[in-house]
Specification:
Elements (H helix, E strand, L loop, with lengths): L4 E6 L7 H14 L4 E6 L1 H4 L6 H17 L8 E4 L5 H10 L4 H5 L2 H9 L5 H15 L5 E3 L5 H18 L7 E3 L34 H10 L18 H14 L3 H7 L5 H28 L1 H30 L4
Parallel strand pairs: 1-2, 2-3, 4-5
The structure holds tryptophan.
The site of tryptophan (TRP) has 14 residues, from strand 1 and helix 7.
């Protein structure tokens, strides 16, 4: 039987965090066992914030090397850079013409971003439609995403339905995959908000590049609660700090939350945190070793970029041709 298709994307902006690893890259690796996976470094999306040339170049290679270090296998899956496959922009324009102003105006991420950004460009507005093009070009069945992207997947589905209703079954209707617990790793100091690499308070995030002593410091400062006696139990509503730390430890050690709850039954928060520090340092040191191995070898990275674009184009072109044909553009 033909494998179902998974598609996802990551923006090449800044240093990746533990949230990116647990919420995206770790899951991307796993999905390769069951699906044909296509992963995209979404450099066009990152232009909604103005980027400096050298930094963007470097960030793209950094993210690619981290994807490889996290176990994305370019022999099995396709990993490519969005701007190298022009079909994304081509389909984007067509989908623009099948998207209503009203539905795009309602996107909550856009509404949030216009509060934060000084540079409110049309790209920011168009962002979810480019994302729909990314997904629909590959006849994607499943899209692993974090909670903040659910609305964008719904939009991609709506656009696909609308298009199919007029032109026949051109696009596969994609479904989201949410990570069971770690789809959102929360901030360390404010566990009610997502751990985000653009956070201005560095104590909220664990970068994949934080060294042992910084990790120790940050975990020590992570918010818990003042329950007495201390209890290490997953209960996000009442114990967001402890729950977030449990999710982190579970994802790093691969022990289930239930097992960890049992192991730490009569322990205090300090020994729980100590265990997190030990495991996290071990894990990140190992990951970084792999990362630097790939990052140093730019020739290899560039060959993956060239191959990835070539393979992605083949699939993208099949869909784009169908679209051109049914619309009447292929004379
Ligand atoms: N917008 C996504 C993010 O910032 C990245 C992305 C781009 C993406 N294209 C995609 C995710 C297609 C899933 C599918 O996280």
């Amino acid at each position: 039987m033909k494998k179902k298709i998974v598609f996802s994307g990551i923006q090449p902006t800044g240093l990746l965090t533990l949230g990116n690893y647990i919420g995206a890259l770790k899951q991307w690796k796993k999905l390769q066992k069951k699906y044909f996976c296509i992963y995209c470094i979404a450099d066009l999306h990152s232009l909604t914030i103005h980027q400096k040339k050298n930094i963007l170049n470097k960030n793209i290679l950094d993210v690619l090397a981290m994807c490889l270090a996290c176990g994305i296998n370019p022999e099995k899956s396709i990993i490519f850079i969005q701007s190298h496959v022009p079909q994304h922009s081509q389909l984007n324009w067509i989908l623009n013409c099948f998207t209503n102003f009203g539905e795009i105006k309602r996107m909550t991420q856009f509404k949030e971003k216009i509060f934060l950004n000084k540079n409110i460009n049309v790209g920011l507005f168009n962002y979810p439609i480019l994302m729909a093009a990314d997904i629909l070009l590959y006849q994607t069945n499943k899209v692993p995403v974090g909670k903040d992207q659910i609305q964008h997947i719904e939009l991609a589905r709506d656009i696909a339905y609308r298009f199919n209703k007029i032109y026949g079954n051109i696009f596969t209707i994609p479904e989201k995959i949410l990570n069971y617990n770690g789809s959102c790793i929360m901030s360390l100091i404010n566990p009610n908000k997502k751990m985000s690499k653009s956070d201005t308070n560095n104590n909220n995030i664990i970068s994949l590049f934080d060294n042992d002593s910084i990790i120790k410091q940050k975990i020590k400062n992570a918010v818990t609660d003042s329950n007495y006696p201390p209890i290490i139990k997953y209960d996000f509503k009442n114990k967001p700090g402890i729950s977030n730390l449990l999710v982190i430890l579970s994802n790093i050690t691969e022990f289930s939350i239930e097992k960890l709850e049992k192991d730490f039954q009569n322990k205090n928060y300090n020994s729980f945190k100590e265990s997190i520090v030990i495991n996290l340092c071990l894990f990140l040191n190992k990951l970084r070793k792999k990362y630097f191995f790939y990052r140093k070898n730019e020739k290899y990275l560039k060959s993956i970029i060239t191959n990835g674009a070539e393979k992605a184009k083949k699939y993208a072109n099949i869909t784009l041709k169908k679209v051109y044909n049914v619309i009447g553009l292929d004379i």
